[in-house]
């Protein structure tokens, strides 16, 4: 998969060198290009923003640098054989970024991110590229960040760990919170490892029982409890058929 990020803060994307994403890059599973938007400014002050039409607070990112940057990134990608780009525009007014969208993006060969600062990018830039390729405006949650760069790190990590061969254990995202399947829409419950006692605290006996059925039942009960406590909205949105008689006894 190829990833391009155009930003006025290329340093903000340095975490893409470390951990899971960094290893995927080192193995050649991810081909990451971070570009400085100011490379496509031609005035002395490297201006990327201007005052909003219609007035109001803040500044709006100008069409010129974004258009030239994206044309250049697209030309380079196409020249080197990448196809079917998707543009991802991080914005608090986008659609919620979900595991489902992460899965969809992980199946795409080429993602281009345009994290903005200030009040956002001139709308015409999004409209222009939406006429040529799929564009996803995405928000990572109901709060406002100073810019989209942190959202790029979030989306990239969620997508990269789904790529074939990136996670050590291919099964380890099968029962992620939010993964499809029997535990669909339930949050994962607590986990334990050695030692069996720590500061007087033991671990639930069932986990030492070796009884796989009982362990699965316990995990599901814990997931139901945790989901009811932290995300009652997720329980509400479950298909009633997803629950069995024992679930209802919880
Ligand atoms: Cl993607 N960008 C900004 N600036 N704020 C956000 C966001 C994105 N998602 C949630 N808040």
Automatic annotation (TrEMBL):
The job of this chain, per UniProt, is described as: Specifically methylates guanosine-37 in various tRNAs.
Kindly list the biological process annotations in GO that this record carries: tRNA N1-guanine methylation
Q: Return the protein name.
A: tRNA (guanine-N(1)-)-methyltransferase
The record places domain tRNA methyltransferase TRMD/TRM10-type at 1-236
Q: How does it assemble?
A: Homodimer.
Entry's EC annotation: 2.1.1.228
Sequence intervals crossing the membrane: none
- This protein's UniProt keywords: Cytoplasm, Methyltransferase, S-adenosyl-L-methionine, Transferase, tRNA processing
Q: Which NCBIfam families match?
A: PRK00026.1 (NF000648), trmD (TIGR00088)
Query: Which HAMAP family does its entry note?
Result: TrmD
Q: Which family does it belong to?
A: Belongs to the RNA methyltransferase TrmD family.
Source taxonomy lineage?
Bacteria, Bacillati, Actinomycetota, Actinomycetes, Kitasatosporales
List locations, semicolon-separated.
Answer: Cytoplasm
Spell out the PANTHER family in the cross-references: TRNA (GUANINE-N(1)-)-METHYLTRANSFERASE
Q: Which residues bind S-adenosyl-L-methionine?
A: 140-145
